[in-house]
């Protein structure tokens, strides 16, 4: 359960919205970054064409609660596992809510969830649904009130 489920956090939920690989379409990432900001989250946007290692480094350095990967290229089964492994190498996987947005075929979703993706949001998902999911599932921090 997240610290925010009860409405108590010492700091806003911190999110990194990232574009991984050669995917050059970032309108959706900008839209969700703005929606998260408007919801009161702290948001960092990675920019385009980031390698999985760069995203992991940014997530660790920014001490994010949520890592949102926006991917439309179809390379999710190659790139998301690299991000998961990188987060595990830094000991940040259990402290980071990993969500994926974009075009992910139904037949690939269970595999992503099994590797630790908490949720997958496809095109047309209401923004409030995504914001509510993050609020309810962002991991509690040790300095959050009990």
Automatic annotation (TrEMBL):
<comment type="similarity">
    <text>Belongs to the methylamine corrinoid protein family.</text>
</comment>
<dbReference type="GO" id="GO:0031419">
    <property type="term" value="F:cobalamin binding"/>
</dbReference>
<dbReference type="GO" id="GO:0046872">
    <property type="term" value="F:metal ion binding"/>
</dbReference>
<keyword id="KW-0413">Isomerase</keyword>
<dbReference type="Pfam" id="PF02310">
    <property type="entry name" value="B12-binding"/>
</dbReference>
<dbReference type="InterPro" id="IPR036724">
    <property type="entry name" value="Cobalamin-bd_sf"/>
</dbReference>
<dbReference type="InterPro" id="IPR006159">
    <property type="entry name" value="Acid_CoA_mut_C"/>
</dbReference>
<keyword id="KW-0479">Metal-binding</keyword>
<dbReference type="InterPro" id="IPR006158">
    <property type="entry name" value="Cobalamin-bd"/>
</dbReference>
<keyword id="KW-0846">Cobalamin</keyword>
<dbReference type="GO" id="GO:0016853">
    <property type="term" value="F:isomerase activity"/>
</dbReference>
<protein>
    <submittedName>
        <fullName>Cobalamin B12-binding domain-containing protein</fullName>
    </submittedName>
</protein>
<feature type="domain" description="B12-binding">
    <location>
        <begin position="12"/>
        <end position="141"/>
    </location>
</feature>
<keyword id="KW-0170">Cobalt</keyword>
